[in-house]
Amino acid sequence: MISRVLQFWRQRFLGLLVSQLRQGISPQKIALTLTLGVCVSAFPIVGTTSVICFFLGLWLRLNQPVIQFVNWLASPLQMGLLLVFVRFGEWLTRAHRVRFSIPELWAKFHASPAGFFREFGLTCWHGIIGWFVVAPVAGVLLYGLFLFLTRQLARQTEPLGRAQE
């Protein structure tokens, strides 16, 4: 199992990044693509992250397959951080704490999307507010990390002649 995960990581992810570097995409652009893919994947409104990544990718001229792939890989962050962002947004706005569970949210949404938004619309805004406060800070930290890593990867993939210059 672990060898399959490592093989996937090497072939699908690192292979994709190496091919981007060989095509002339800068480590900065790749780091920005990775950062936005991860940060947007945690956006607390389910079903919106692919669309957000698409428009950010168009606007910033980022590689669509890479940003969408990273968004997909990091998608568990959305469910894992949903309650955190909602609670943080409630705390920031000094709002009354709404009791809910993720399975309850899914059931209510599937039963009636309009009723769901009437009941939990403000809770969605609290999640968005929490995300908007955290995402820029996380983005700066992730960009620094990804920039370091992509520069290292670029150095390792340089042709032998260029590396000796």
Tally of strands:
0
The backbone outline, from C-alpha atoms, is: elongated
Mean pLDDT: 89
Give the amount of beta strand, in percent.
under 5%
Structure classification:
mainly alpha
Low-confidence stretches: 160-165
Rg calculated over all Cα atoms: 19 Å
Fraction in helix: over 70%
The end-to-end distance, rounded to whole angstroms, is 42 Å
Counting DSSP H or I runs of 4 or more residues, the number of helices is: 8
Largest sheet: none
Order of helices and strands: HHHHHHHH
Which descriptors apply to this entry?
single chain, 165 residues, mainly alpha, 8 helices, 82% helix
What does this structure look like?
By secondary structure, the protein is mainly α. It has a domain at 25-139. It is built from eight helices and no strands. It has helices at 2-22, 27-41, 49-60, 64-73, 76-93, 102-111, 113-157, 160-164. Helix 2 runs antiparallel to helix 3 and helix 6 crosses helix 7 (113-157).
Short synopsis of the structure:
This protein is mostly helical.
List the helices and strands and how they pair.
Elements: H1 2-22, H2 27-41, H3 49-60, H4 64-73, H5 76-93, H6 102-111, H7 113-157, H8 160-164
Helix pairs in contact: 1-7, 2-3, 2-4, 2-7, 3-4, 5-7, 6-7
